[in-house]
Fold this protein.
Amino acid sequence: MTSKTEKKQIISDFITRCNDYADGQIRKYQARLKQADAMETLEIETKIYNWKVYKAFNIYTIEELKTDELDRWFN
């Protein structure tokens, strides 16, 4: 059986990989921003913002996993 600590590490590792993916998406949209017209710029900036919010939430979750805050979820 997998321990609570191991489960938390598996989830943390997965979320870290999600953030790596988000970094790639942010870079992709930042590159597109250089060629965008005015209307497209707003749409791309919104996507970049959304990816940054997603990353911030994930970072918060990883920090919570380092504590006992979410331990009840693993029962």
In short: Residues 26 and 48 are 5 Å apart (CA to CA).
